[in-house]
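User: I'm preparing a small set of examples for a lab meeting where we compare how different chains pack in three dimensions. I only have the primary sequence for this one, and I'd like the structure in token form so I can line it up with the others. Please keep the answer compact; I'll paste it straight into my notes.
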Amino acid sequence: MDREPLIPKHGGYRKLKTFQIAQLVYDVTVRFCDRFIDKRSRTHDQMVQAARSGVQNIAEGSQASGTSKKMELKLTNVARASLEELRLDYEDFLRQRGMAIWDRNDLRRTELVARRLKSADEVAVWVKEIYGRYGRNGQDGQSISSISSIKSIYSEIAANAALVLIGVAVSLLDRQIRAQAHAFESKGGFTERLYKRRHSKGM
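Assistant: Understood. Below is the structure token output for the 203-residue chain.
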């Protein structure tokens, strides 16, 4: 009878949907911060680092899963917390500038999720498309002459797009965390497997 390997297959994080979306959030955040936030500001660094932490901890958790399900769960929770921190930063950006945060039922949210965009370039094209379609305050075809107003509208759409992507990543991470917690409770980690292996050999 085949036994469960002492160190099961692990890694493969690049195939995880959570990693893919978190990486997209990171790429989008780097572009957003470079364009709309002063590079010398603490906020710029905080947002980029929070986004990076989301990606890195998903990868590290996946790598750690071979020997420690507990560490995998801990790192995945850190990734989720980092993305939650990033979400608050985007919300603060919009709130402090009197910009709108899209309602959960906003059709633009639904459309962005349905597009399944895979790169920051694709997200940038989508933001431009939404700007061209709705213009200022959702008015189709309204002309904007002020460069500052154009930049403001672009930043509002881009920040909301990032929030949508973060929401997707966090939702997927919640599922991943529940699955990891169940696996840890039911199968244990390396220590438990090692004990069972030794016990079966009469050690």
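A couple of notes for your slides: Residues 147-187 form the longest helix (41 residues). The chain has seven helices and no strands.

User: Perfect, thanks.
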